[in-house]
Amino acid sequence: MSLEHRPNRIILVRHGESEGNLDDTVYERVPDHRISLTPKGFEQARDTGAAIREVLDGESVEAYVSPYVRTRQTLEALALPVAERDVRVEPRLREQDWANFQDPVDIAEQKAERDRYGHFYYRFSNGESGSDVYDRVSTFLESMHRNFETPAAPRNVVIVTHGLTMRLFCMRWFHWSVDYFESLDNPENAQPVVLLRQKDFRFKLEAPFTQWNTDVAPTERERSSWI
Known about the structure:
Rossmann fold, 6-stranded mixed β-sheet, single chain, 8 helices, alpha/beta, 6 strands
């Protein structure tokens, strides 16, 4: 890939507040992929969209979005200046699969077990592990890179997805360790995470992720992913 065709920035955006963020019993009745944003979630996405449009300042942009309802609603509320042909619905950006209709008590028990086992390797019953999501995000990155190979490649890429997927995207991009990945918090609802291209055509995070476990010291490689 020609380095000069790399975009100026890659902006990851977590979906706005969803019905599942407020009430986890909704997973008993509604498939995860059909859960919608709350009114607050729409408002969060509109505010984030205004901030992103100001940053873009008229530059070209293409968007990738998880197929889940809440992510597609978030993308629409962002109101980006992107043509319909430049929006790609990408199943590999979906949320981690936990189960089908979910029993909140069972999921709570599995989450506690995951905390003991490790978030990256623990596989939910009838679902995925973090490492499974990492693998599909890796194949998505290969596809995305191929789209940077022409002079017509956009100057900006916006990816609307889910919190864990965002962390795993950055883990794969910056070659973070499992320990460092597991020490980081998910972004807040509708929070953007910006990868900025540098003069050497490498990317760095505009701001690091919040680290909940400060006992894990980032390596020099991990620290160098921050600006």
